[in-house]
Specification:
heterotrimer, A mainly alpha (291), B alpha/beta (320), C alpha/beta (320), A: 291 residues, 74% helix, elongated, C: 320 residues, alpha/beta, eight-stranded mixed beta sheet, five-stranded antiparallel beta sheet, 11 helices, 22% strand
Chain lengths: 291, 320, 320
């Protein structure tokens, strides 16, 4: 029995390896993953790799990038490099939490809707379609203006307004998977509908949602940056968007205050976009050798 | 042992079809009456659209009928009762046409075989379940069992997968198996393994079987009795030998004559024209009338009854 | 002089890291008037052979041979342009699953007219209509079929359209690639009757690819048995089927339920060899019940035995 377990484990690892190998054969996948790794590293080791604390004010006000201040300083003499590095923590958190929430809600609603069908599906589809009609950013804007701009609110709101995209993907998968023979086998051997949904339908259909979530992480970061840029971000936290917002009045003579955080936002969105592409590539069975 | 394990009375199953606003119905199964004996392999023979697959799914409770009754092992299983359906799963299992799709592609074979037993409360001890699985596979000559169990479905051949499907059902000790075209997607040389395994189950577990197929050679090889369906209605019921050597209904005669066989002599064609009809809004009378060489006015006015023309022989035709 | 002669045909597929040798050293003659049944199971390479002959292999496939002549002309070394003129006019192919071969948004007439124009660009519409109506009536289809869309036709009708497409220019050789496989029994039978009639009326030579040996028995005059890319036996249909000389042929015939009493079917256990690494000896060694040690080490040659070709060291030793 122990031997059998080991064998089955190694087979499962093999499968993971196959997926990994396929993913890393796509150039975009590699770039995206590397960038993400870099960001995670920055976020995790922030205190270690920054010479200054993000709020430390020095006398070097509005100085351009130099050896002492890699990305220059802002109007209060704070080191932009350190602020950007710590800002990574905010941005990544927003990305993961918002996209994660969106994925969970989207998968649950989409799979129920697609699998159970009929009335449930009709109702949910109408709701999803309505949501998709509303430009989500404005919805977020309105909600945040009304309810406040605590970072948690922002993360939740982004998650709660972007789930329809995932729901649609999951629903389409559920619709096609439920017609497959092994689902009929599951019914025929007595599995309950719920068990079939969580044990067979969702695991087999979730891949597009995962790929989409990568993109949504980038989107969430961008949304948060936009909110902060408009002054609606969390007043207590310094995100990349907030840095751009703060740099705006000084844009003409201290452009690094705006450009550099802006580059980071772009790189983050790009990284997730590439990861999404890499996952799409892996999703296609033709690109997985030996299957 | 002539006790009946399954009795079907006036079974009707329609599917709604929307054609430009007007709602119509495909009368897939339109009033079937037959019974299956304990320990018997009962073949259902017909071409596409005759209702044989629908029949299998209704009997297995994957679909619910519009009207009619089904008695299984003395109990009524027709009508919508989800709780009763779940309790009945252990006693009736189904083998499907596509062996490649009969397994969750993300799960190794061992898990796919273990789950049904776990769910149905057979053998609480995981180790003992594994032992039973290996034992049954070895008995069915699916070896080396341990190696096959750790594989993913896409690594195995159609023949292996279908036999594993059968074993998966066997582990639940069913009294009845519905086999829906279970060798149609397999190469000829591989079919023997599957068919003989089914025969073994019949012998050893004393299970009864509803064997659905369009292939008369396979049907007569494995079944004791055969029921011929056309456009949702029964045309004829008889022993395999009778249907093959002495078909009475014109449609049965056509089926036998058009089925390609390996024989030295040339077969006489019982020629009929036209194509299979889909039973949407069928005209009155016999369903086969539009193509039948023996058809007369009666046939388009009155539907023939399925009646006895001998011991264990039923035909639905005005002229037999 | 044979109508089609091929010697040592090899067809390979280039995959990512290996070369699959799908057809190996295939040598065969098709004489005028033959209805040759090419029988093989999945992975046998029979369709690949046909595709190679018609130069429609996928991008990663390529064919090599010593000789391929058609009506005396070397078609192996012919330029693509020259071959394109020959293809469809003297040698045509009809596929299975006709539905996917036709565009769903064009009427049947338009698609057939296109085919005509591809070879005879000056054909006027009125002439084309006349010709096509004639062709359709040959396969027993009404004139109005020309005005219909593919989805309006049944499977049987579609296949008839495809066959008539294959006959537009009165080719000498028609390759039928599993044309009846997806059809119902009676529709298949009707189509086969049709094909037999066409052969007589038009003096066609046919290469019929199928996996159903019953079909070959009823329609064909000659039979070629293909296994894993190699020709194992060839000869007159009745001769080969009822007095097989190659163990695979015999096993294949015996896998058919027709010749077996209830429970006596045997089948061929085992799986196909890996075609990217074919064995040194006989290709059927692994699964052969008549094998000798010699068979594993040496590869048998295709021998001429009267009117038969057999590839087996023990041909003639198996009691017929």
């Amino acid at each position: 029995m122990v031997v059998e377990n080991q064998i089955s484990l190694s087979r499962r690892e093999n499968k993971l390896l196959k997926y990994a190998r396929s993913y890393f054969s796509s150039g975009k996948g590699i770039i995206g993953f590397s960038l993400l790794l870099l960001f995670i590293f920055m976020a995790f080791f922030a205190p270690v790799i920054t010479p200054y604390t993000p709020d430390e004010m020095t006398d070097d006000v509005l100085k351009p990038p130099s050896a002492e201040h890699l990305f220059g300083t802002d109007h209060l003499g704070r080191d932009i490099y350190s602020r950007v590095v710590f800002g990574t923590r905010i941005s990544l958190s927003v990305g993961f939490v918002a996209a994660g929430l969106s994925a969970i809600i989207g998968v649950l609603i989409g799979s129920f809707s697609g699998f159970y069908g009929q009335i449930t599906d009709d109702v949910v589809s109408k709701i999803v379609d309505t949501f998709l009609m509303i430009p989500s950013f404005f919805l977020i804007l309105i909600i945040v203006s009304i309810f406040g701009s605590n970072i948690l609110y922002i993360m939740f709101v982004i998650g709660l307004t972007t789930w329809p995209g995932n729901a649609r993907l999951m629903r389409a998968q559920a619709l096609s998977i439920r017609e497959r023979t092994f689902i009929m086998v599951a019914r025929s051997t007595g599995e309950s509908r719920i068990r079939i949904l969580f044990g067979h339908v969702i695991p087999n259909g979730i891949f597009p949602v995962i790929a989409n979530s990568a993109l949504q992480m980038g989107g969430a970061i961008l949304t948060e940056a936009s909110l902060s840029f408009l002054g609606l971000g969390d007043p207590n936290l310094t995100s990349w968007g907030k840095l751009i917002f703060q740099g705006r009045p000084y844009m003409t003579f201290a452009p690094w205050m705006v450009i550099i955080p802006g580059i980071f936002v772009v790189l983050a969105v790009l990284a997730f976009s590439f990861i999404g592409d890499g996952l799409q590539f892996t999703f296609n069975p033709k690109n997985r050798k030996g299957e | 042992m002539d006790k009946e394990i399954l009795q079907v009375k006036d079974l009707v199953k329609y599917f709604p079809v929307r054609k430009f606003g007007k709602k119509q119905y495909v009368k897939a199964v339109d009033g079937l009456n037959f019974s299956i004996r304990d320990g018997e392999i009962f073949g259902v023979l017909g071409e596409s659209g005759c209702g044989k697959t629908t029949l299998g799914r209704v009997i297995n409770r994957l679909e619910h009928e519009q009207s009619g009754t089904i008695e299984f092992m003395g109990e009524t299983i027709s009508g919508k009762d989800y709780k009763r359906d779940r309790n009945f799963r252990r006693k009736m299992q189904m083998i499907f046409q596509n062996p490649y799709d009969s397994f969750d592609p993300r799960v190794i074979i061992y898990k796919s075989m273990d789950l049904p037993m776990k769910i149905n409360g057979i053998e609480r001890d995981g180790k003992k379940r594994l032992e039973r699985i290996i034992e049954t596979m070895n008995h069915a000559k699916l070896t080396p069992a341990e190696s096959l169990l750790t594989r993913y479905p896409h690594e195995l051949s159609g023949g292996q997968l279908q036999r594993i499907s059968i074993i998966r059902s066997m582990l639940l000790n069913p009294k009845f198996i519905v086999a829906d075209e279970c060798v149609s997607m397999l190469d000829v040389s591989v079919r023997a393994g599957v068919l003989n395994l089914l025969l073994t189950i019949q012998e050893e577990l004393k299970s009864s079987m509803l064997f659905i197929t369009h292939d008369i050679s396979v049907a007569t090889y494995i079944s004791q009795r055969i029921m011929v369906l056309y456009a949702g209605k029964i045309m004829e019921i008889g022993s395999s030998e009778d249907i093959l050597k002495n078909p009475l209904h014109p449609y049965s005669k056509a089926l036998v004559s058009y089925s390609p066989t390996i024989s030295k002599e040339e077969k006489m064609r019982y020629t009929i024209t036209g194509e299979v009809v889909t039973p949407i809004n069928p005209p009155p009378g016999c369903r086969f009338a539009s193509r039948c060489p023996m058809a007369r006015r009666e046939c388009t006015e009155r539907e023939p009854e399925l009646r006895y023309v001998g011991k264990d022989r039923l035909v639905a035709c005005h002229f037999v | 002089m044979p109508l089609l002669r091929m010697e040592n045909v090899n067809i390979n597929y280039r995959l990512k890291n290996r070369l699959v040798r799908a057809v190996r050293d295939f040598t065969l003659d098709i004489n005028e008037g033959d209805i040759l049944g090419v029988i093989g199971e999945s992975g046998s390479g029979k369709s690949t052979l046909a595709h190679g002959l018609m130069r429609i292999l996928p991008g990663n496939g390529y064919m090599e041979a010593s000789t391929i002549t058609f009506n005396g002309r070397d078609i192996l070394n012919m330029s693509d342009n020259e071959f394109r003129q020959l293809r469809w006019v003297e040698m045509s192919i009809v596929f299975q699953k006709a539905m996917s071969a036709l565009s769903p948004v064009h009427k049947i007439f338009d698609q057939m007219y296109d085919a005509i124009l591809a070879h005879e660009p000056e054909t006027r519409k009125e002439d084309a209509i006349k010709k096509l109506e004639g062709l359709l009536s040959v396969v027993n289809l009404p004139r109005k079929t020309l005005n219909m869309y593919p989805h309006e036709l049944s499977g049987g009708m579609m296949q008839r359209v495809m066959i008539s497409l294959g006959l537009i220019f009165n080719p000498k050789l028609v390759i039928l690639d599993e044309v009846t496989t997806a059809l119902d029994v009676i529709t298949q039978g009707q189509l086969l009757d049709e094909i037999k009639r066409l052969v007589k009326e038009f003096g066609l030579t046919v290469m019929m690819i199928t996996h159903d040996i019953g079909v070959v028995n009823e329609v064909c005059t000659k039979i070629a048995i293909v296994y894993a890319g190699e020709l194992l036996e060839y000869g007159d249909v009745k001769d080969v089927i009822f007095r097989p000389l190659n163990p695979y042929t015999r096993a294949l015939v015996e896998s058919h339920p027709d010749l077996n009493p209830h429970g006596g079917l045997r089948g061929i256990p085992g799986t196909l060899p890996d075609l990217s690494n074919p064995p040194e000896g006989c290709i059927f060694y692994d699964r052969c019940t008549y094998r000798l040690d010699r068979c594993r080490e040496e590869k048998p040659e295709l021998r001429d035995l009267n009117d038969r070709k057999v590839k087996c060291f023990r041909a003639g030793e198996l009691n017929g």
